[in-house]
Specification:
Number of helices: 8
Distance between the termini: 31 Å
CATH architecture of the largest domain: 3-Layer(aba) Sandwich
Helix content: 25-40%
CATH superfamily of the largest domain: P-loop containing nucleotide triphosphate hydrolases
Number of domains: 2
CATH class of the largest domain: Alpha Beta
Strand content: 25-35%
Number of strands: 16
Strand order of the largest sheet: 7-8-9-3-10-11
Largest sheet: 6 strands, mixed
């Protein structure tokens, strides 16, 4: 069990606020903290990693205290068995990609895992390149491989795929899910992408103004009105035709374009770029704006 009970004064563009998080996270699941920019999500990950100290409270993982303000316990970041994929990377600039992966492994590269990790994230052809030669998306993938090389028990993901195009993002989401299950990780995800949270997370904690206001499954939180329909999916509106035409909506679902029949009232509420949830039962689709 991961227990988080902390308080921290923070600054945002709207002024100072207090981040207050009290929750218990079940091991072996993917947990997402979701909310607008500036509500303290990244700061929470940094406190879990030991890169920022709470003002007060405690953090424990599987019965071991990582931080306790009253008992003056604060385990060093390098002694916390976790991996942290940060937005601004974490590669050593003087090492090649392969050397970065080997350096991160606890026992070197005896099992050839560095080569396999680079192949898994699609960077095997760049193994001899230095980080400055990579694009933003390639850097994110390399940091993910480097982090997994550490064999963490807890994996922290801070907008891990934000620099990737839709196709690569979809592929890497599948890879993260597969790796999470294979390595029996406890994964904590911060993402602004609703579709990413829906696909990856088992449980979501919604944060507003520094407070957790709700938590539950992605379906229960984002789509409380979907009910028990047979099929559900989410996507981005790409094109809107006149409502009296069949297949009025063109929706990007993952890396596929789907034509969707909709009602006049549904079309009038939508704009290009909106994220929507769709469900149907017996060929009667229902559409909800996210």
């Amino acid at each position: 069990m991961i227990v988080v009970d902390i308080r921290k004064r923070l600054e945002s563009a709207e002024g100072p606020f207090e981040l207050v998080v009290k929750c218990q996270l079940t091991p072996g699941r993917i947990i997402s903290f979701f909310g607008k920019s500036g509500v303290g999500k990244t700061s929470l990950l940094r406190m879990l990693a030991g890169l920022m100290n709470p003002d007060e409270g405690r953090i424990s993982v599987n019965g071991k205290l990582w931080f306790h303000s009253e008992k003056d316990i604060n385990i060093r970041p390098q002694d916390r068995r976790l991996g942290f994929v940060m937005q601004n990377g974490g590669l050593f600039p003087h090492l090649t990609l392969e050397e970065n992966i080997v350096f991160a492994q606890p026992y070197g590269n005896k099992d050839g895992k560095a080569e396999q990790l680079l192949e898994d994230v699609g960077l095997s052809m760049l193994r001899d390149e230095k980080p400055h030669r990579l694009s933003g998306g390639q850097t994110q993938l390399a940091v993910l491989a480097q982090t997994l090389a550490r064999k963490p028990e807890v994996l922290l993901l801070d907008e891990p795929l934000s620099a990737l195009d839709a196709t690569m993002r979809h592929q890497m989401q599948t890879y993260i899910l597969k790796t999470h299950n294979k390595e029996l990780l406890s994964t904590i995800l911060v993402s602004h992408d609703v579709r990413e949270v829906i696909k990856l997370a088992d449980e979501v904690f919604l944060i507003e103004q520094g407070k957790v206001i709700n938590h539950g499954s992605p379906k229960d939180l984002f789509f409380p009105n979907l009910g028990k329909d047979i099929y559900q999916m989410t996507g981005e509106v790409i094109e809107i035709a006149p409502y009296d035409q069949p297949n009025a909506l063109l929706v990007l679902v993952g890396d596929k374009l789907v034509k969707v029949t909709s009602t006049e009232s549904e079309v009038q509420k939508l704009s290009i770029g909106d994220l929507i949830a769709m469900s149907h039962q017996a060929y009667q689709p229902k559409i909800f704006k996210i």
